[in-house]
Amino acid sequence: MDFLDKIKPRDYQKNILETCKEKNCLVVLPTGLGKTLIALMLTIERMKKFPGQKVLFLAPTKPLIEQHLKYFKKYLPELFGDMQLFTGQITSINRKKIFKTADIIFSTPQCIANDLKKEYYKLDEVCLLIEDEAHRCVKNYDYNYIAKRYKSQAGESFRILGLTASPGSESKKIEEICKNLSIEEVELRTRDSIDVKNYLKEREFEKIEIDFPEEFEKIRNALLSVYNSYIEELKVRGIAFGPVNKTRLIQLQKEISNNLNRGEKNYNYMLGASACAQAIKIQHALELLETQTVKSLNEYLEKLREEARNRKSKGVIRLVSKQEFNFVYASTNEFLAKNIEHPKLEYLIEIIKHEIKSNPNFKAIIFSQYRDTTQRIVEKINKIEGIIAKSFVGQAKKKESGLSQKEQKKIIEEFSIGEINILCATSIAEEGLDIPEVNAVIFYEQIPSAIRSIQRAGRTARLEKGKLIILITKGTRDESYFYVSKAREKKMESAIKGIKNRFLKEKQNTL
User: Fold this and answer.
1) For residue 414, how many other CB atoms are within 10 A of its CB?
2) Which domains, ranges and CATH numbers included, belong to the chain?
């Protein structure tokens, strides 16, 4: 291809490009299969067709958009066009000046949305808008505002490309993304697609099922007893009906809060709000017990005790004074004193020992939901000879510790050159970031999200053989989340095929 330097596109990338040249397209391609190259090739095509016009490439975070700029600079000749980066560190007045002369602008959506609201520039000279991680293109996210403004300002050169590893499993959500981006065609590929699978290496899948310990069962029963008492209270007060899970509790909390914010000083609702808040806390404690570590549960209970000591709320004071709560807290203290941890942690240590013994160059990413868990895993596996692990988490929020973007960058560099061989990561490592190929991806717990499961799994078995290992504690939410996630992945493929068929019928009707 003209102007493409030092890289050769694969057949499926060329096939997808042909669609993108003709239509606004949503490209659904697993992590690591080259979505950015498709964006680069389409950029070349659009700028050849509309000389003098601009390309606008958006990604949700600064590290991710910097990565795309670096990729374009690597594979395009230096004289192809003026490439500029927009982030919050560049003032809006300077962005206004740069926009006039730049050919390809790489930006976070917040910068462009703010500039458009101030009317600093228009998008009428943009011949291609690329929105990466397009599954975010729902509700009030800035992607939607920018796409809407682009559509109203652009002329015949209007073209949009959406990129994602997974748009989700709900037809309604995928249709919303397509509508917001004026999508006319969806190009879906999975690891099993005919034109993709020849380029990928074998991915071995291992699901390790672990028994939930009897001594943990006693703690679970105590927590459930407290939880059920709060649910019963909500039902007696006429606030909750039917089965109640964590999702329903969070919805219920919003509903109660809205009623109270409208000035309804309803005593029943005020007590219901407290019961709901405590029930959510117990649900979280149950999740930590079933799927995380004893230490993370113990620290969470200690945090609730601290809130009670500081008299943060009457509800928390009542909660921590309950006999069952104190039994659970004493039990976790006893376990930690005896060095008893969640069995998943013990299994994980054995897996890592086996892998590093088999392959001294072993590299892995261990995914976990919670920062506390990643820290505990790092603490444990760094005792294994040959392992240098670090926790890889998002930026600091509220009172939690976190990593700055500079620190995140440094850890990825250390991982790339082999100074670290295991990343223990939260969701920050799921989306987009250029993390090197690994021998194994390990899910410390299963998550119900198809988007996040696909993103996690895509980190291995691209250039070399790889393993996907999932730890499942039997009889817990780990088990149900595993089947939910698999069902949602299938549902996603089915939903996208349905939307593709609808686009086809609409096209036939217009002929």
Assistant:
1) 15
2) 11-198 (3.40.50.300), 214-337 (1.20.1320.20), 343-492 (3.40.50.300)
